[in-house]
Amino acid sequence: MANTKSAMKRIRQNNKRRLHNRVFRGAARTYVTKARTAIEAGEVEAARSATLLAVKALDKAAEKGILHRNNASRRKGKLMKSLAALEKGGSK
Predict the structure, then answer these.
(1) The domain that contains 29 carries what CATH number?
(2) What is the domain count for the chain?
(3) Alpha carbons 59 and 45: distance in angstroms, whole number
(4) Residue 89's pLDDT is what?
């Protein structure tokens, strides 16, 4: 347990920030999973809309500093590559 007032305050701040970050990180994960599922199912329209939502969630998380921008970019690239392969008619 923290001994100083500043350490106790830092614990409170860290916990508050962690809960705030979980919302955006969890949303991004959920949207990415839904997009991946739609792509694997082969549903082009559903996959396209789910991928756009996932990209939006990843951008928002990166903008807020919850995900590193390169991490978000890498995830978006993988999703878009899979979507393009599906739209082209080939496999991943």
Answers:
(1) 1.20.58.110
(2) 1
(3) 21
(4) 83
